[in-house]
Amino acid sequence: MENLLRPLIVVGGSVVLTLVIGWATDFLLRKADEQHHETPLWGLLRRGRIPYQLVLLAALLRGSYDEAQLLESRREGIGQALTLVLIGSTAWLVIRIASAIVETSYSRYAHSRAQRDPARVRRVRTQVTLIMRVVSAIVGVVAAASMLLTFPAFRAAGASLLASAGILGIVAGVAAQSTLSNMFAGFQIAFGDMVRIGDTVVVDGEWGTVEEITLTFLTVRTWDERRLTMPVSYFTSKPFENWSRGTPQMTGTVFWHVDHTAPVDAMREKLRDILRQCPAWDGRAYDLSVTDTTPNTMQVRALVTAKDADDIWTARVTVREQMIRWLTAEHPYALPRVNTSDATPPPSRNGHRPSQDGVPHQQRRYHGSTRPDR
């Protein structure tokens, strides 16, 4: 009977104690979160409840398993497994705690500067994201190394591994040259303020918003919700457009091809009326000018301003659509036309219309004879 109750008491007591401590800790964090609305730290720490309970359970079972006297022949293997679980759950908990602290610091900074300096907030967000990835990678590597060192075979081979670390490092560096260059480029982007999460960029003719930045790749979400995944080394070696650098204010252009008889002055007044009714226009400036001509049309360009890239797109499409609609309704003659016949020349002084080669139609010869003009 004692051999049966002892394992139940040890294992069951560890599980019950873990659940009670986990519930009590979560209850205290919830109360702290309700009382301190100015900081999200306590609410974010609640995300670590599962790894926290795993750490408690693994530690209790590892310390009391010898007293349970359960599966004596498998004691070393079970103890090894509990140690691995303890190391892994501890690394998981450390990452959750670090993430909560970093996100709390960023949220406070973003809340205080979101209105005054949004570009700086996006820069800090990019840096924080990359820092958290580096911290997670370091903790993961340390945890994996700690797990491997719990095996005697790896401890015995440690000296030879350290002795050959220099050669292995050189070989790995040559083999992973592109990966390492992308990693260094990721740090350069994060701390060089070249591009940030949320920036509006144009890459290879594609317009989009930077959605994610890692140590090796960068994701751009295009206007049609496609994702362009590119190595970060691209942004350190090739030119690209960043519409969010400096002030977010932008100037956009709209072009029309109209007939030479189009009322330019009336179009300029109509542009002013359209922009006054357009919420995307920031009211800074507008203009309409004839920028080019062709034998059949002339090119008219409108300049509009807006506070950011999204609004400049809205203003451009609004102006383009409403101007075409107004020309169609009020001045249809101003739309481009294709000439299907020659223009009629004015009559000459003697009352005859000259032909294109300068010879009156009455004197033009057809197959060797003179035929009167009809």
From TrEMBL:
Gene3D superfamilies documented for this protein: 1.10.287.1260, 2.30.30.60
Transmembrane segments: 6-29, 77-98, 130-151, 157-176
Protein name (database record): Small-conductance mechanosensitive channel
Compartment(s) of residence: Membrane
SUPFAM superfamilies per the UniProt record, alphabetical: Sm-like ribonucleoproteins
Classification via InterPro entries: LSM_dom_sf, MscS_beta-dom_sf, MscS_channel_2nd
Residues annotated as domain Mechanosensitive ion channel MscS: 179-245
Principal place of residence: membrane
Keyword Repeat: no
The keyword Membrane is annotated on this UniProt entry: yes
Keywords, comma-separated and alphabetical: Membrane, Transmembrane, Transmembrane helix
Region feature Disordered, mapped onto this chain: 336-374
